[in-house]
Design brief:
six-stranded antiparallel sheet; alpha/beta
Length: about 625
């Protein structure tokens, strides 16, 4: 995640939100929980004017109030509850009593867990992820375009900085389109409330942890999206930000204690230099700036050494998994978090949900830099990060060089080959997410100079290489632009708004080339969806020669051969050197064109073309 806009720190020091309920009890978070959780511990955040002066009592079979924490602010209590394994679902009162004060009572509920078999499945290399920026995808409910009382109320589709009105209902309305494309998992940029004064559309400066932004919908609608996706065999990934809150987050406007965020004598931004985390010669000062510096002026850096901060974050994440039935998390700005906390967090998530998966953004340059953050790499750390996979920026740089560079010893497609040859550094590279672009990067079609052949080669690689493929919304219809600024790669998906002159969700609304691009993605994505060989099959790659890169995906049932010709001219390719994988096969079928190849001796591969061939005996 990358933003260039910086707010004044003045907004961070605003104090005391108006109380929504009774004057002495504004909120309790989480507002409800479940019985039968693996971890019996539950910590409630109680916020209300002067609430710390009161004593707390509750009475529910199987629930024990084990400790009450008071902090610097008199407006908070943190309640440690133990929920026994045999506790029954139901409601009970939590009472707050004070001398000469009116008794306050909050009705808390422990719910029954939903044990449906199609929930919380995890996202794996069997999936194909589609990344959506909700504000820019489709507007399904115009009534929530502007919400009175929120700080940003400007709606302007002609501006890249203001909100455009896309929402969760718009995504639900277009699930048919996504299912037809071959998508099996949705990753939405953050949808929690982001009540910041400006550029709130992107969602990466949340101001609530338990509430969907009302301009996207509400919690129930978000759960409906998950349920309807699951009914189609599609999963949902939630985008999380551990590193920071938005400056207008309710808990930062009346902080429990000064050490909820990292405070500096003057505003200090992170250096974003990941090297200091593993550099054996790095100074502690540089490491501190990297992890404790703020991401931006309106994004205070959370102190993840504070136990209450850690609990607040972790419980909110578990709450969303249980409430909505999520399948995975994408972890934003991972490298800037406290590494010990993130390892601890990962263990807690895995213990509660063994099938649940997550992957992290590690926007770094260098294979060792990237593998440093992943599970199983303990060099220079002394602990395991417990992080299964990352967004694989290194293969992104590799495919970009493949399609834009000239073939050489380390250049062109050799860079991609070398990158994948370095997979021995990972515990399991198939858990990495491979991609061509995202909401922070230039659109892939523009990166390859709007060369349609290179575009198709990139898509073919994405859907046949190892790992979990991810497509950014609109890539399949050749959306283009460079991320200068970021808003240029976050344009609306045409047809998502009533009155749009073009509707790219339909074949009739797309140009001939857009339909060809869509069809190319759909054909290969659905082949991958229906053939495990491109999901979990083994990979064998061959050293590129003369600008041609060949690799195979294979299992006991099928073998698929991928031939990538990066040259500007057609090439005759002798298949003799690939005998290990061709043994017993005599012909092949082109997955895209259905054309049959009757001989596997020598074949002519057109210029700048990638063939995906299913081998036959």
């Amino acid at each position: 995640m990358k933003f260039k806009f910086t707010f004044s720190l003045v907004c961070f020091f605003l104090q005391f939100a108006a109380f929504a309920q009774v004057p002495d009890l504004e909120r309790i978070e989480p507002s409800f929980w479940w019985v039968g959780m693996n971890n019996p511990k539950l910590q409630l955040v109680v916020h209300g004017k002067g609430i710390a002066s009161r004593e707390v009592k509750l009475n529910h079979t199987g629930v024990t109030l084990s400790q009450v924490h008071k902090v610097e602010s008199p407006n908070y209590l943190f309640l440690d509850l133990l929920v026994a394994a045999d506790a029954k679902p139901g409601k009970f009162n939590i009472e707050f009593q004070g001398k000469n004060q009116k008794k306050l009572s909050y009705t808390y509920e422990l719910k029954e867990r939903d044990k449906s078999s199609n929930r919380i499945l995890g996202v794996t290399n069997k999936d194909f992820i589609y990344l959506i920026m909700p504000d820019r995808f489709a507007n399904g409910d115009k009534r929530n375009d502007v919400i009175k009382g929120m700080q940003e109320t400007t709606l302007n589709r002609d501006s890249m900085y203001y909100r455009h009105g896309g929402d969760i209902q718009g995504i639900i309305n277009n699930l048919d389109y996504l299912e037809d494309l071959g998508v099996t998992a949705l990753w939405l940029n953050p949808v929690l409330e982001n009540d910041q004064p400006k550029t709130s559309y992107h969602g990466y400066a949340n101001t609530e942890n338990y509430k969907i932004d009302p301009r996207f919908g509400d919690n129930a609608l978000y759960k409906k999206l998950v349920d309807e996706s699951h009914a189609r065999g599609m999963k949902v990934i939630k985008d999380l930000v551990h590193n920071h809150f938005g400056s207008q987050h309710w808990i930062l406007k009346d902080m429990p204690s000064k050490d909820w965020v990292h405070n500096w004598p003057e505003f200090t931004k992170s250096s974003f230099k990941d090297q200091v985390l593993f550099d054996p010669y790095a100074s502690e000062a540089d490491r501190k700036i990297m992890t404790d510096g703020w991401f931006d002026g309106h994004m205070p850096d959370l102190n993840q050494n504070n136990e209450l901060v850690k609990n607040y974050l972790t419980q909110s994440h578990i709450w969303w998994i249980e409430y909505a039935g999520l399948d995975g998390f994408r972890l934003d700005t991972y490298a800037y978090n406290d590494p010990e906390f993130m390892a601890e967090w990962a263990k807690l998530i895995k213990a509660e949900y063994p099938r649940f998966t997550f992957f992290a953004e590690t926007w770094v340059h260098g294979i060792p830099n990237q593998t440093f953050f992943t599970q199983g790499n303990t060099i220079n750390r002394g602990f395991d990060t417990e992080l299964p996979g990352v967004t694989d920026f290194q293969t992104l740089w590799g495919i970009n060089e493949t399609l834009n560079g000239k073939f050489g010893w380390n250049e062109g497609v050799n860079k991609l080959y070398t990158t994948i040859a370095s997979d021995f550094m990972y515990q399991d590279a198939t858990r990495n997410v491979v991609f061509l672009d995202n909401h922070d990067l230039s659109r892939f079609y523009s990166v390859v100079g709007e060369d349609f052949d290179d575009f198709k080669s990139g898509i073919a690689w994405l859907l046949t290489t190892r790992g979990i493929p991810q497509l950014y919304y609109g890539t399949e219809i050749l959306m283009k632009n460079f991320s200068n600024p970021d808003g240029l790669v976050r344009e609306d998906f045409k047809g998502g708004w009533a009155g749009d002159k073009e509707n790219k969700f339909t074949a009739q609304g797309r140009t001939q080339k857009e339909n060809e691009a869509f069809g190319f993605v759909r054909t290969l994505a659905n082949y991958r969806k229906n053939n495990e060989v491109l999901q979990t099959g083994k990979l064998m790659q061959y050293v590129p020669e003369n600008g041609i890169y060949v690799y195979f995906r294979y299992n006991a049932d099928k073998t698929v051969m991928i031939i990538m010709n990066t040259n500007d001219t057609a090439s005759d390719l002798s298949l003799k050197r690939f005998y290990e994988r061709l043994d017993g096969f005599t012909q092949a079928v082109n997955i895209i064109s259905s054309q049959k190849i009757n001989s596997l001796q020598t074949i002519n591969v057109p210029a700048k073309t990638t063939w995906v061939l299913e081998l036959q005996k």
